[in-house]
Design brief:
The chain is mainly α. It has 9 helices and no strands. Helix 5 packs across helix 9.
Length: 216
């Protein structure tokens, strides 16, 4: 379960929330009592965001932004950025959903599989590698971007296109962070980085001690 309360159908008053509940879960279905969407997700992103209907509206407006017909960037390059953002931020939900979006755009399975290790893969063309490098600057380096990256992007993108990609990729960086923090969707799991128990008889001073002689 997510760490925050989900909003059942009976508590929904906002038209936008009811509309998306109908669209994603079925007309009249309570997604808290009967979770699950057509894409195989639990759907609790929607039921948690429904806690604040105006933020819910803002978020779905953000989804419309990157699909808007005024966008000037190639959808495949856009989705590479969104997918890489999910990987870099360790959000299985964002990564998994946008792998599916890449597939829907006709991207090969070989390329989709290589997004996590693009730096050592030869399946991406020059433009795709530049876009993935910039996505890493945004999501992994916190925006720290060498000018050489922009020089390469400007060989095939206008300033408007670079801005679009920057905004959209950072938007999905944010969604990845929110999903992990609130343990929504496929990010609902315990952190794997935990202490591993020491052997019986271990003492903290053993870290500074010489190696023990082998037992005879």
């Amino acid at each position: 379960m997510p760490v925050l309360r989900q909003v059942p159908r009976s508590e929904v008053e906002a038209e936008v929330v009811n509309r998306y509940y109908d669209r994603l879960f079925g007309e009249g279905v309570d997604p808290v009592a009967t979770p699950g969407t057509a894409t195989g997700t639990p759907g609790d992103w929607w039921t948690v965001f429904a806690l604040a209907p105006d933020i819910f509206q803002h978020a779905v407006d953000g989804f419309a932004v990157y699909r808007h017909p005024d966008r000037k960037i190639d959808p495949v390059l856009r989705e590479l950025g969104q997918t890489r953002a999910g990987w870099v931020k360790s959000s299985q939900f964002v990564f998994s959903q946008h792998c599916k979006s890449l597939r829907a755009l006709g991207v090969s399975e070989e390329k989709i599989a290589a997004v996590p290790y693009w730096t050592v893969s030869d399946v991406f063309n020059e433009q795709e590698r530049a876009v993935l490098a910039y996505a890493d600057c945004l999501c992994q380096a916190g925006g720290r971007t060498p000018l050489a990256v922009f020089d390469k992007l400007k060989t095939f993108w206008s300033d408007e296109q670079i801005f679009e990609f920057t905004y959209i990729t950072c938007l999905y960086d944010m969604h990845a962070v929110i999903n992990r923090a609130l343990r929504m969707e496929f990010d609902n799991h315990e952190d794997p980085i935990v202490e591993v128990a020491a052997p019986e008889g271990f003492k903290a001073t053993d870290f500074l001690s010489a190696a023990r002689p082998p037992k005879r």
